[in-house]
Amino acid sequence: MVQRVRIADIVQCCLVVVVAVLLMLPAGVLSAQPAVDGVVKTGEYDHSTVLGDGIYTLSWTVAGDTAWFGIQATTTGWVALGIDPETVMKGADMVFGWVSGGKTTVLDQYSTGMFGPHPDDTSLGGTMDILSSAGSEQSGTTTIEFSRKRVTGDTQDKAIPASGNLKIIWAVGNADSVSPHARKGSATIDIGAPVPIVLTFTISSTNGTRNGTPVTLDAAPVIQNGRTLLPVRYVAEPLGATVTWTAGTRTVTIQRAGLTLALVVGRATAVVNGGNIRIDPADARVVPIILQGRTMLPARFVAEQLGCAVSYDTTTRVVTITYPKP
Question: What pLDDT does residue 151 have?
Fold first, then answer.
């Protein structure tokens, strides 16, 4: 008996480790967001504008609480973007980037005066808030891509609205370091209305779509106790939410601006911004489960907490999730 218990403990421990690793792996649906790889591909971003008589192109996508930017400029030196300046450069949230020897440098800075200087946020008591960055240099064009939270909480960062207008400044230089600019300008861009995100998936199939583009789930959705369960990342990450797994408590935590949602495997209640909520008031059997090494969460509960509308076609067995809710 002792030997069996030990084997069971080992198996359970291994399962938890496997699930934790799988939760950290990117799901196929992420390919629908801009890939921060130093290459701005056609149709990769939701919006773009050409500035400076064609020498500077800015592309952007805003989804949930995250913003992605791509800069393409005719230079072999640095490129820069300033967000929401107050007067000339003063108060601008600055991002500088360049590529040298195959290495990309991206700086998070803040302009303290009308014409600078613009030291790193960290030297002003702030933080480095670039989530991801990459760059490339080819045929006289420098490309810099980066992502950051729309609202970082850093006083040296300006909030990026989810819609409406945003004032920006831009510049390029000839050196692979911060130096006097060669060209500069300003503009007001229309961030654009939030682009609707429509996810579909079919019960017992790993094939799904995001805004009509095929994606592949890492596990097929299932129906248990009359409710659909699916891999949580498929819904959460396209909406700009982050997903983490705590192995010790078998807890999945989903976070987005203004929302922290925690669900525990096998538990019928979730914690939403610190308060307990029943996942399904009509049926306590509806709980997160681990199935074939994947953590599966109740689709409708998670989607509705994230502000989505959910519909189900009983004939085709297709579930459609739409954000924002119409």
Answer: 93
